[in-house]
Amino acid sequence: MTPQKAAPAEQSTGRKAWVKRTPVEVVLEQIGKQEDRVASLREELNQEERELAKLQQARKVLEAQ
Known about the structure:
It is a single chain. By secondary structure, this protein is mainly alpha-helical. The protein has a domain at about 35-65. About 65% of the residues lie in helices and about 0% in strands. The chain has one helix at about 25-65.
């Protein structure tokens, strides 16, 4: 019996090579992602609050009639 050779890793699958990172690097990346998510949610909240203010103004106009 001959030993089987390991199949070479295919680079054509589009996956990035695995890069070993320290736990500190992992946590810092998670912090960055969370900060980005919070900033995005704050902007979305601001847009929703502006829309609510417009609708409340419309309600005042309609109730005044």
